[in-house]
Amino acid sequence: MHILRTPQELSRSVDTCRANGQSVAMVPTMGALHQGHASLFKIAHEHADVVVATIFVNPLQFNNSADFEKYPLQMDHDVQLLEEQGVHYLYAPTVDTMYDSGFSTSVSIDGITDLLEGASRPGHFSGVATVVTKLFSAGRPDVAVFGQKDFQQFAVIQRLVADLDMPIRLIMAPTIREEDGLAMSSRNVRLSRSARQEAVAISQGLLAAQDQFALGSRESKRLVESVVSVLAPTSAEIDYVKLVDAKTLQDATTASKGSVIVVAVVLDDVRLIDNLVLE
């Protein structure tokens, strides 16, 4: 695996691949990799000849500086996992490389970024859109793979790619979960033992709503209450539990197949998100 540090190195490497007739898939990450990320690399291999991973903890998407400072860093572990997954290139720039002293550009997307995570984390999605634009500009992938756990992020990037006419195929990979159902996340390592035990209530609540839907419940209020009732006995601070339209992310009053229940809670000062597409 080749480790690249500058956008110029990334662009030259991708140009060489293309000159050899190879397609390129990119998997953007912030590091602290786990088996959920491994599943993304596997999917990337299925859709392109060359797989590029990126690791960059993007300060622009943290509205809380303390959260940024606490984000787990484990580059040696990450490099080992990437090599095990057969990743060809790792792009791991520094903050100064990505945002030099004169950097003054931001990418903003209206509407879909004002809801859910956007409402709770001002500036978050502008930071996401800006860094993804820079990654796509330097790497020019044919395919990019993201996880379903960040459902709203995927919707935002879809809008970005469509609006800016980027010829990139986006793939949303299924959420990978721990044995007890908790969605895998780099933030999970920050949970205390007791908070980690309580965190499983998130997925249990979502499954309770799925069961209600399977039994015929379609009212948003009832499905949301199914989730909230499971979370209530825990110490989780609920930011939101909502039933939303999968495309617009606007609140839905009635559920149908493909509607999404989205959840955000804070446990042990750690923000956790999850979602479930109703089937």
Describe this entry's structure for a reader.
The chain has 279 residues and is an alpha/beta fold. The chain has two domains: 2-173, Rossmann fold, CATH 3.40.50.620; 186-274, Pantoate-beta-alanine ligase, C-terminal domain (Pantoate--beta-alanine Ligase, Chain: A,domain 2). The chain is built from ten helices and nine strands. The protein has helices at 7-19, 35-47, 65-70, 75-84, 95-98, 117-120, 124-139, 151-163, 193-214, 220-231; strands at 2-4, 24-29, 50-55, 89-91, 143-147, 169-173, 237-244, 260-267, 270-277. A six-stranded parallel sheet has the order 1-4-3-2-5-6, sandwiched between helices. Strands 7-8-9 form a three-stranded antiparallel sheet, covered by helices on one side. The mean pLDDT is 97.
Helix content: 40-55%
**What's the overall average pLDDT, rounded?**
97
CATH architecture heading of the largest domain:
3-Layer(aba) Sandwich
CATH topology of the largest domain: Rossmann fold
Number of domains: 2
Structural class: alpha/beta
Strand elements, count: 9
CATH superfamily of the largest domain: HUPs
Spatial order of the strands forming the largest sheet:
1-4-3-2-5-6
Highest-level CATH class of the largest domain: Alpha Beta
Q: Measure the end-to-end span.
A: 40 Å
Seen as an oligomer or otherwise, the chain set is: single chain
Count of individual helical segments: 10
How would a crystallographer describe the biggest sheet? Answer: 6 strands, parallel
Q: Please mark out the parts with pLDDT under 50 across 5 or more consecutive residues, or reply none.
A: none
